[in-house]
Amino acid sequence: MPRTTTVESPGCPPLRALTSDVLGLIKVVEVHGKVGVPKVVEIWGSPDASRAVVATSFADCRKNPLLAVARKDGVVELLNSLSGDTLNTFRVCELGLTNHSAEEDPVIGLHLLRTKNIELSSGFCVLLIYTEKGKACLRSFPTKDDVSLDDSVVHTFKNWDVSTAGKVMCSSVDSKENYALFGGKAIELNLWDLESCSRIWTSKPPRVNSLGIFSPTCFTTSTFLVKEDHRKVVAGTNNYQVRLYDISAQRRPVLSVDFRESPIRVVTEDLDGHTVYVGTGIGDLASFDMRTGKLLGCFVGKCSGSIRSIARHPELPLLASCGLDSYLRIWDSRTRQLLSAVFLKQHLTNVVIDSYFSAEAPAGDVAEQLCDLEADDSAIEKSTKEADKIKRKLESKNETVESFELTASEDEEMDKQTSLERKETSKGKKSSKSLKRMKRSKRKLENKNETS
Amino acid sequence: MIAGKRKNCGEDGDGEDHEEMIKPRLLPSLIKNKEKRSQVYAKLKHDKKTEKRKKFMARKAAESRALELGEELPPKKIPRTIENTRELDETVCQPNDEELFADNDTDEFNKILKQETIPKILITTCRFNSTRGPAFIQELMSIIPNAHYYKRGTFELKKIAEYAKNKDFTSIVVVHTSRREPDALLIINLPDGPTAHFKLSNLALRSEIKNHGNPTGHKPELVLNNFTTRLGHRVGRMIQSLFPQDPFFRGRRVVTFHNQRDFIFFRHHRYIFETKEKKDDKKAQGAKNKTTTQDRVIARLQECGPRFTLKLVSLQHGIFDTKGGEYEWVHKADMDTSRRRFFL
């Protein structure tokens, strides 16, 4: 008999992902149940091509998660990622960037600083915004309309030029948010200290090859490889290379790997501190071990369009990718198997994963759960302590996984170690499962309280 | 040998009880004696033939009986084809999709399709171009109104795109020839993409078509068939944007792009509506023109050529850039896992 249905996907664990597309829509995709099928739950915004989303940044925290969205017409919006309410909007041209207009010098990206979100409860968040011509702006913004900027709190407000020539195409901020990385077309990678707004490191192009051929620099994407360490940087280039830079070692790339015949569009680091996921312009998705530069494997599916964004789940071994083929795909990052795919109709530009989502908590019965919460408060404290312990252990192990010149045997050992870590983390997950559920409901309640 | 295999999978419906009879029997291919084998095989074949004949006669009898009695005819069986057993595809456009309309209103072809700008096409070739290439381009020029041919020279395609953008062209069509035979078509939409790359095959020029007509210079009508999915929709709109959106209907000229199983068939026709006297007029003539002659309008087609088939290889986001380009869709070998999956 002819096969009239598509092959069934294995389904994926509970998950909440937000995607943004070229029509300016933000779609919320949720997976419910143990082995569920992702579904579009909510769509925020109305279709309008001039409001196409250029970049998003997501502060993934338990209460008050924030989503910052930069649009094509030069508007930056701050959204509550649970309800989709717009908290604040402003135009980039009002920021005091010199000679700025939305047509000539569009916003390329933005970054929501998470560690400086201490003031978040007070209604402020800090954003790093940068434009194509290399103007960067670090500034705090009110997340409520009625709060004005001239409050008693000290606000950061810095403008500076990253470069004067060339086109900025990528940027990233390290996890402690002290350093920012910029790169682009005809711009070598720059590392900037965000405190003093000074450049502390610049990369050098690799040497010409034996034929004397030099390829012009064009960085399309960059990321920090290790969470705790700002010195290791991975970048993808337009001429098919994934490069590893070590700031403490040298200015030229330590390692450079060619991947197929298509520009690298996106590089995302894994939690383990040595794996990166690479997406290209013709829809190839692969993972690399950056200690050795080995290709671990490709994510084979029916990816047919350029990959624009990859998001790694902070706890589960999950990977979400999206791009010009209008599909949001969810992968198992260990087995590289496609778990499920959703067709979202538009060219997608960005995907973020909300890690504090748990499918079991229903929308209603919040009060009931609150009673449970209070009763179980002591239990929570215990489990958080456990989780902390495990985290500490992991960190100490991660520090050992830092040297990059490794022999093959050592490499294997490392793999064993990482597998051990995985086991531990999975144990930790089990213990903290009940915890998460309660966290979720608590978070919802708090939100409700605030809005009321 | 093949026929022996087919015995098991062929003929469904009424033939089942017959098959059950055969099944315990030995397969002819397993018999080693040739004479015996051919005997058994011949018998099998004969049985099959008679069975088929019997079924056909039964069907015919039922039909004629129904006709006589004035009952409803037995329902006709729909043959199972690859198209109507196509794999379920979620990307197929739905008629009530709001997002689709919003997307249509803002895409790159929107200006031309809303008749805000008039399409202006630049046609050029690959660097080495001879015999069938120029002939094909000449006919392409007669099909697409407002098309201008430019010699390729040794210019880079990116430079040509730049030039065409400055001269307000809306599309570039590049005919690629290999061994003096056109084998690929590249359509670049200006000013900001997309770029579609088609494989071109089965080209028949006008002179190679029997009883071909010669097209007039009127603006042609356009028929786009079966572009169902989101990708197909986009490709269809791209093709549509090559032609002016106000056809001159009196010119009675049709250009057809028919998509079937991801192959896009191009045909070019002239049509005419003719009034023809009815067939039973012969009897009327026998009765010496006493009955009124009833006129019947029929449409006649004449093919003008050329005739060719396109297959989408890739659709690139933005203007032609093979090195640093992003693709919206690329055909990859690992997509071909089923004959029943189509992308357009």
UniProtKB/TrEMBL annotation, chain A:
Biased composition, class Basic and acidic residues, residue ranges: 384-400, 415-427
Source species, domain of life: Eukaryota
Gene3D superfamilies found in the cross-reference section: YVTN repeat-like/Quinoprotein amine dehydrogenase (2.130.10.10)
Stretch list, region Disordered: 384-452
InterPro entries named among the record's database cross-references: Quinoprotein_ADH-like_sf (IPR011047), WD40/YVTN_repeat-like_dom_sf (IPR015943), WD40_repeat_CS (IPR019775), WD40_rpt (IPR001680), WDR74/Nsa1 (IPR037379)
Methyltransferase as UniProt keyword: no
Composition bias, Basic residues: 428-443
Pfam family, one: WD40
Keyword field: Repeat, WD repeat
Protein's GO biological process: ribosomal large subunit biogenesis
PROSITE patterns: WD_REPEATS_1 (PS00678), WD_REPEATS_2 (PS50082)
WD repeats: 300-341
Entry keyword annotation includes Repeat: yes
GO cellular component: nucleolus; preribosome, large subunit precursor
Name of the protein in its database record: Transducin/WD40 repeat-like superfamily protein
Species this chain originates from: Platanthera zijinensis
From TrEMBL, chain B:
One Pfam family here: Brix
InterPro entries (alphabetical): Brix, IMP4/RPF1
Organism of this sequence: Platanthera zijinensis
Name of the molecule in the record: Brix domain-containing protein
Region of interest (Disordered), residue spans: 1-25
GO biological process: maturation of 5.8S rRNA; maturation of LSU-rRNA
Annotated SUPFAM superfamilies: Class II aaRS ABD-related
GO molecular function: rRNA primary transcript binding
All residue ranges annotated as the Brix domain in the record: 119-321
An annotated GO cellular component: nucleolus
